């Protein structure tokens, strides 16, 4: 029997890890759709932690940042507004300074 400790394995069906799926689900349920105003990332992270992913906020925010970076994913899932890092290795701004909503493809 194989047990993985300290990391989640992506699902075979869609390639998402549980935290990615929970972020997209929480944003969809809350109505943070494309075309609507951006919402504070701290609020989104708090909602995900409070309802779906009872772990640290850093893991949730880092996963959301990755889904908003155009240089990490082929298709963006989250539309980020603010400093979400750079190719050169600059980190993303703190979650209280950034905003996000779903991309059209994520709805």
UniProtKB/TrEMBL annotation:
One of its GO terms (cellular component) is DNA topoisomerase type II (double strand cut, ATP-hydrolyzing) complex. The lineage of its organism: Bacteria, Pseudomonadati, Pseudomonadota, Alphaproteobacteria, Rickettsiales. This is DNA gyrase. It comes from Wolbachia endosymbiont of Romanomermis iyengari. One of its GO terms (biological process) is DNA topological change. One of its GO terms (molecular function) is DNA binding. The keyword Nucleus does not apply. Belongs to the type II topoisomerase GyrA/ParC subunit family. It catalyses: ATP-dependent breakage, passage and rejoining of double-stranded DNA. The active site is at 97 (o-(5'-phospho-dna)-tyrosine intermediate). Residues 9-107 form the Topo IIA-type catalytic domain. PANTHER family: DNA GYRASE SUBUNIT A, CHLOROPLASTIC_MITOCHONDRIAL, DNA GYRASE/TOPOISOMERASE SUBUNIT A. Keywords: DNA-binding, Isomerase, Topoisomerase.
